[in-house]
Amino acid sequence: MLVNATTTAFGLLLVLFAVVGAAAARHAKATTRDYLVAGRSVGPWLTAVSAWATAHSGFGFIGQIGFIYTTGISALWLTVGWFFGDYLAWRLAFPRLRARAAGLDAQTWPQVVAAGSGRVVRVAAAVLTVVMLATYAAAQLQAGAKAMHTVTGWTYEVGVGIGALLIVGYSAAGGVRATIWTDAAQSAVMLTAMLILGWVGVVECGGIDSLIDTLARIDPALLSVSPRGAAGGPVLFVLGWIIAGLGVIGQPHVMVRLLSVRGDRDVTIARRINVSMSLVFTVASLAVGLSARVLLPDLGAGDPEQALPVLAGTLLPGAMVGAVLAAIFAASISTADSQVLVSAAALTTDLTLRQPRVRVVKIGTLLVIVLMTTLAWWQPSNVFGLVVTSWSVLAVSLGPVVFFATWRGPTSSVVSLGAMLVGIVSMLGWRALGWGSALHEVVPGVLLAIVVLQMGPRVDTRRVRANRTADRQP
Predict the structure, then answer these.
(1) Taking all residues of the chain, what is their mean pLDDT, rounded to a whole number?
(2) Cα–Cα distance between 334 and 281 in angstroms, integer?
(3) Spatial distance between the Cα atoms of 320 and 146, rounded to a whole number of angstroms
(4) Distance between CA 62 and CA 244 in Å, rounded?
(5) Residue (of 143, 158, 196, 184) closest to 334 by Cα position
(6) For range 160-180, the mean pLDDT
(7) In 3-state terms, what secondary structure has residue 56?
(8) What pTM, to 2 d.p., does this model score?
(9) Number of Cβ atoms within 10 Å of the Cβ of 66
(10) Pick from 365, 300, 325: nearest CA to 71
(11) Does residue 459 have a pLDDT over 70?
């Protein structure tokens, strides 16, 4: 492996992330509660930047930039729709969901999803969590490995292995506290790298006016505001992505922050910080994707998901390229580490319906990392497709059940399981029929799942209290 300014800067930043994770691990307590939810002591700033880093994964640097490169300005509607969906979740749903989780003294998201509906729902939620998040995490490792291969020439296997080893180094030692602390360091690198590359890219294109003129000469459709391929029209397209953004309440790796945050007021402060960071990142990513289309016109014949790392290698000095590569790796790892821990918690706590010792959860963490790494080496490397699929399945299965239980009260286990199944089948069917260009596949899945939940009987309050007592962790 060639050692130069790029690999040196990349390596130093990875060491920084490891040091931050090790420092967090030193503050960890040898309890399952601390390992899974950091003793519910995380403040608003760390909650915000950690949630932001987890949500803006390798997808934001690889899959989303490739989508902007291919689609043009209309790709903004995807990010705008997702942004508003995420904002509505923070504004309307998160405070109530946090209160529900605190009342249950929950340490895993499947506990919150299944409270009052029966243990079989909790097991089903755990299975979906492990399967979907292991796949999702594998996609994150692939995103980092793809960028590393483009910049350094190192093989995918090496890139995946480095990411997995880094996650093992701090996640298994410090649990969610270590992932949140490292997310804070990683988010700073991620946001800074995207801003610098977006600025340099636009300047290299001759400014915004020149960028727009060149895009018009390449393909006028790149400047079309109307979403490309939106068979149902722009309103349905954006509505679909807003509901997909709301699907965050079905994502255990993001929602674990609600289990760790200190109090209700902290959720409001965290929302404001998170929203501000998301707005800046959205503008910067659009600048990167569009400038890459102008400066790298031949990339469309190959792999557009390589746009960001190739652009960095073209425009930036070696040390900065290493920093951008570290940012992509940080984006990938900041999501994958949370997914690993949440999956390990589901594997050792929700599937067994027991409160395991922290040693058992750490063993589960190692098992999930092995599974994630194997999938990353084996499965196809379309990051955009893998992320959207995993997100969608969790959004249409866990999202409606926990939403309905929080606002209307839990339903029976049969109804909850039926809603989860209907949501997944309808989502996959919608995709198979090719109707996703008219309306995002999450929409029919969520709506039909809610119909099933609405038709089912409520669970009486005595049963809810009994199930809460049974599910509450000591």
Answers:
(1) 85
(2) 16
(3) 18
(4) 19
(5) 184
(6) 84
(7) coil
(8) 0.83
(9) 25
(10) 300
(11) no
| Range 195-202 average pLDDT | 95
- Residue bearing tokens 């809603």: 419
Amino acid 141 reads: L
d(CA 245, CA 253): 14
Instruction: State how far the Cα of 55 lies from the Cα of 49, in Å rounded to an integer.
Output: 10
User: In angstroms, rounded to a whole number, what is the distance separating the alpha carbons of residues 258 and 142?
Assistant: 28
Cβ neighbours of residue 474 under 8 Å, at least 6 residues apart? 355
With CA atoms as reference, report the closest residue to 17 among 175, 163, 218, 193.
163
One DSSP character per residue, 65-109 reads HHHHHHH-GGGHHHHHHHHHHHHHIIIIIHHHHHHHHHHHT-SSH
Task: Give whole-number Cα distances, 275 to 21, 87, 91, 270, 335, in Å.
Answer: 25, 7, 10, 9, 18
Name the β-bridge partners of 458: 411
CA 154 to chain centre: 26
User: Per-residue pLDDT tens for 286-300?
Assistant: 999 999 999 998 886
Q: What Cα–Cα distance (Å) separates residue 437 from each residue in 67, 229, 233, 236, 394?
A: 14, 6, 9, 10, 20
Q: How far is CA 472 from the centre of its chain?
A: 27
Tally the residues of the chain: 474
DSSP per-residue letters across 314-336: HHS-HHHHHHHHHHHHHHHHHHH
Residue whose tokens read 């040693």:
359
Phi–psi pair at 458, nearest 5 degrees: -75, 155
Q: Which residue has the tokens 């404001």?
A: 272
Vertex 204 angle, CA 198 and 207, to 5°: 80
The token pair that represents 368 in the structure block: 């999930």
* Residue-wise pLDDT tens digits, 67-118: 899 889 888 887 788 888 888 888 888 988 998 888 888 999 999 999 888 8
State how far the Cα of 248 lies from the Cα of 449, in Å rounded to an integer.
Answer: 16
Helix axis angle, 234-246 to 442-455, nearest 10°: 60
Distances (CA, A) of 397 to 139, 268, 445: 20, 27, 8
Sign of the CA dihedral running 94, 95, 100, 105: positive
